[in-house]
Amino acid sequence: KISEDIHKDVLHYSQVLVESFDSLINNISPGYCSILIRLQAKVSMNQSISLIRKIFNNDTHINISSSRTVNIPVCYDGEFSPDMKRVMKYTGYSRDEVIDRHVSGSYLVYFIGFSPGFPYMGGMDTSLETPRQKTPRTIVPAGSVAIGGKQTGIYPIESPGGWNIIGKTPLKIFDKNNYLKPAMLSPGDQIKIIRISL
Description:
By secondary structure, the protein is an alpha+beta fold. Helices cover 23% and strands 28% of the residues. A seven-stranded mixed β-sheet has the order 3-11-4-5-8-7-10. The longest helix has 16 residues, at 4-19. It starts with a helix and ends with a strand.
């Protein structure tokens, strides 16, 4: 489930994995309540079990960097909110009520996934829950702010996608030319949405 307590555990063990790097590990991908660990191709079952035991028996206290608050400006004007009517239909709210409830959310970036820099954010007002599109769009513009089920997210690059687009941010959420930190947001970030006009 989506839970801040579980999120803290996921962040802790992700950092344990990064800081006690093992050559058997190719890559890790944190999720809401899990961590996918990709191992080298020729790792035996016994090596895998031994590695997992080593990780979870590690009682080293890892200092998880304190979260930061990031303000994200979002414009909800018509051209940037092609799915607003769909969200209004599912929620029964007016356009202004959808926007007010979306802006007032207490957002936490749980993990980055789907596409480079895409933040999966929990903390949206649960009454805004709207199912994803049955047929995803082939192109969603970069910066699109969308609702997918109980979550909200921001498309960092132009890509296909099936979430309900209700706004757009002018911020560059992913910059492939920034080699040190291409993704603007990180797991653990607190997000405050600021409504802006066109």
